[in-house]
Amino acid sequence: MGTDARDPVQTASLQLSRVLDLEQFRTTIKDAVALVLPNVKCVTAFVQDPYHTDDSHKSVPLWLNGEISQALPKEGILWQAYDSKQRVIKSHLDQSDPARQLLDSGQFINSGGIVVCSPVLEDEQPVVVLLIVCDSVTESHLSQLEVVQNQIAACHYRLKQSPYRATDMPRPMYKENSQEKSSEAILQLCAELYDQDAASLQVKVIKYVSMNH
Fold first, then answer.
1. CA nearest 20: which of 176, 127, 180?
2. Using one digit for the tens of pLDDT, what is the confidence trace for 121-135?
3. From CA 90, how far away is CA 118, in angstroms rounded?
4. What pLDDT digit, counting tens, does each position of 161-201 carry?
5. Which residue from 94, 97, 209, 199 is spatially nearest to 156, judged by alpha carbons?
6. Domains of the chain and any CATH numbers
7. From edge to edge, which strands make up the β-sheet containing 125-134?
8. From what superkingdom does this record's organism come (predicted)?
9. What does the buried/exposed string (b/e) look like for 193-212 if buried means 16 or more CB atoms within 10 Å of the residue's CB?
10. What number of other Cβ atoms are within 10 A of residue 24's Cβ?
11. Shortest CA distance to 145 belongs to which of 45, 72, 38, 14?
């Protein structure tokens, strides 16, 4: 596709542009985050189901899917990030923090790593909350993470608009110059046009293309 593998943000954006369902979305979120942060040891994502939502997002909980489905805890670092709609970075977690159950505490307490908890916003409401264990981050790392989060928000919005809303439905087989390439172009354009209001800009671009395709 001509993607420069040395550009982690562009690589992450193209990976997200190929997502076709919720299961793939969850997996790709983790891969994308690992591309832009240093020595990522763990990525956990609480995700709002894009197929069961409303315009306000407020009545739909965020869930962690794995061996056991778990709703976003209403306390600790996860709730702090969700409620404040702001990224939270800590070098350790309180013993009572529910997030500790999701992480191997030795991974960050004993290795000098940090915990990054970051909400992904769509229409100013969290639709994904990321819980990440990695090495110390710079402003450059956080800027790249912000771009990837905007791509995650755009991907979540795209899934809401998709007619292929269930993972057991047959996926469309794309041909040259088809929707897959168009989707990649949209996400790449959004990254190139990134500014302080990028999440809103991306949604506007996707809405425009959806209406004029």
1. 180
2. 999 999 999 999 999
3. 11
4. 876 554 444 444 444 444 555 555 555 555 555 444 555 56
5. 199
6. 8-161 (3.30.450.40), 181-211 (no CATH)
7. 70-71, 62-64, 42-48, 125-134, 114-122, 88-90
8. Eukaryota
9. ebeeebbbbbbebbeeeeee
10. 17
11. 38
**Would you call 162 exposed, middle or buried from its count of C-beta atoms within 10 A (0-12, 13-18, 19+)?**
middle
**Tokens coding 1:** 């596709």
For the whole model, what pTM was predicted?
0.74
Q: Are 81 and 88 in contact (CB under 8 A)?
A: yes
Q: What kind and span of H or E run contains 119?
A: strand 114-122
146 close to 37: Cβ distance less than 8 angstroms: no
Residue indicated by tokens 């269930």: 166
